[in-house]
Amino acid sequence: MSPHTPSALQVNLHRLRIQREWDRTELARKAGVSLPYVSQLLSGAKTNPRITVLRKLATALGTTVAELTGEVDTDETPEDAEDLNRVPAAS
Question: What is the Cα–Cα distance from 30 to 57, expressed in whole angstroms?
Fold first, then answer.
């Protein structure tokens, strides 16, 4: 990725923020993340946020971390994965 190509995180943060008609300050307030940090994420100056920050942003925006970062989301929780590995009881 070239320095001028926005990351999936930047694109998704911007898109979701605009869809909600929030400015940067509102996103920061609702997520509980500092305004300078949100601004750095949106500008691409900060490229590797902690998972705790991603979770806060995803929760505030009503999405998942995987969707926010552009990763594939299987909609599978760890509990679901455990269920898939269980053998059904014999009837």
Answer: 8
Altogether, the residues listed in the chain come to a count of 91
Beta-carbon count within 10 A of 10 CB? 17
Q: What pTM value is reported for the model?
A: 0.74
Q: Is residue 60 classed as helix, strand or coil in its secondary structure?
A: helix
Please give the class, per CATH, of domain 8-84.
Answer: mainly alpha
Q: What is the distance between the alpha carbons of residues 44 and 9, in angstroms, rounded to a whole number?
A: 9
Amino acid at 19: Q
List the domain boundaries for the chain: 8-84
Instruction: State pLDDT tens for residues 2-20.
Output: 557 899 999 999 999 999 9
How many C-beta atoms surround the C-beta of residue 69 within 10 A?
A: 18
